[in-house]
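Protocol step 4 of 5: obtain the predicted structure for the target chain.
Materials: sequence only (see below). No template structures provided, no constraints applied. The aim of this step is simply to have a reference model before the mutagenesis design in step 5. Sequence pasted as it appears in the construct record:
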Amino acid sequence: MKKVYKLIALFIISSVVLLSCGEKDTETIEQYEARMNRLEILKYYNIQDVMPPRIVNDGVLFTFAENYDSVEISGDFNNWEDSIPLIKSSYGVYYYLWQYPLKSGKYSYRYRVNGVWINDPVNPNIEYDNNNQVVSYFVLTNDIGFYEKNPIYNSDGTVTFFYSNDTAKEVMFTSDKLGFDSLRYPMTYSNNLWVITLRAEVGNYYYNFVVDRIWEVDPLNMNVYKGSDGRLHSYTLINYNQTNKRMVY
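Step 4 output (structure tokens):
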């Protein structure tokens, strides 16, 4: 009889554990967005104002409000190497936050909308570039630097993503390039940071941290994209010509 009671007790405990895990796994999109809306990170995802490029606390903010299917940007700040997709905010405003160091000076740029290059419609500053092409531009009066962001570029051609949380029991890393698999890529806890080092393809990169089975965006990356799965994903551009230093805690 004691064995029967023990088996029943074990079954009940197992059921409670499974139900608890299930509750985390089955967080609804509405609950997820409500939780995300309490985070400062969505201050750009909920942006409404459109104006020329401006310096904010965590980068250079670009905004674009015309109604197009796709909006991209390129310019002197990224050596015209890539067309960076802008993210559509919850109010329909396209935005992108550049978070890499820049020297003082003049920076030309253009938007590509539905595949066609145009100048910034809200920026009156235009000039002819070396190719006799009219471009928009903005001016930085001082050097700016934004080092506290993911990823860290390593000398061996890998990148390291880090996440700060000293109460989590486990943190997994996932991205679109990894099939958004939330179970296969565990991060390692070291020196008060969860870290993972991997080889990432050059180009657009969408990712999340899964903290004790709860999907989280990167608190150091203000570029947030709502995917077709309904989740919010952090977004960055993998470019091995950039350098980035680890944040000191």
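Step 4 remarks: The first strand starts at residue 54 and ends at 56. DSSP finds two helices and 19 strands in the chain.
Proceed to step 5.
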